[in-house]
Amino acid sequence: MSPPSDQPTVQLPSEVRMPILGFGTWQITGRRAYEAVREALDVGYRHIDTATMYGNEDEVGRAVRDSGVPREDIFITTKLPPERAGRERETIQASLAALDTGYVDLWLIHWPPSADPASIATWRELLAVRDEGLARTVGVSNYDTIQLDALIEATEEAPAVNQVRWGPALHDPQQLAENRDRGVVLEGYSPLKTTDLRDPVLVGIAKAHGVTPGQVVLRWHVDHGIVVIPKSATPARIRENFDIFGFSLSESERRQLDAMGR
Ligand code: NAP
User: Fold this and answer.
1) Which of 29, 114, 173, 205 is at 20 to 30 A from 86, Cα to Cα?
2) Residue with the nearest Cα to atom 30 of ligand 1?
3) Distance of CA 192 from the midpoint of ligand 1 (Å)
């Protein structure tokens, strides 16, 4: 397993580096969340993805503190529920208090607020919070290119990251290119849920490398430069999902996986 310092990262604005492999925490709360995040940090993950909506920021904060890993070595993302538009300040303050930290590394708008003008006003608030140092970088989630452009046009600031549902079966080179052209790092969520892990092509590639189909899916993201945040509450899988840096996919294998959705 790679020591944390060897983990590949992607570059965000202001010299912030984001580990390309992170740990998702949706649908785990309470003791399960605490134990899963402790396990993840023990295994070597240094990037944790949470959200106000997940109801587990307290447990994430406690796991980080108890892990003994210095706070500055961990990249923490949390997200603003769009119905909190207009209450951005109080929401980030509550996240920071729950996470027991003075800043997050990335704060995202969880999905676009239903009214377009609210999206722009909220984006301005995120930028202000970043400028005050409460979030090192800010971004969005579930935004299409038109919605990204509306934010950029209004503020001349592109989101650092756009977190979207992604996986080989959803691979959309055009959407990836449109994000990159705007300087937006694409982060994929639900990588395993959106993949048929029994797909014969995937299984064949996994066998050829002596790894599991899940590991191939995660490695595929990394080879594309797409940030990926698998979730697991199972210690063996938490470990397995982190152990993806000892092999890489050939060009031809990557292309076969790119075609899974077609
Ligand atoms: P996921 O990570 O693709 O899949 C999680 C599921 O896969 C769990 O049921 C897990 O089971 C199972 N699993 C984990 N490792 C496996 C492996 N190696 N082989 C087979 N099955 C495996 O789905 P997700 O939780 O939806 O997405 C990941 C993270 O993205 C979330 O946790 C969250 O942080 C983020 N997310 C963001 C949004 C958004 O709107 N921004 C939406 C959805 C998710 P066990 O836990 O039982 O091991």
Assistant:
1) 29
2) 189
3) 6
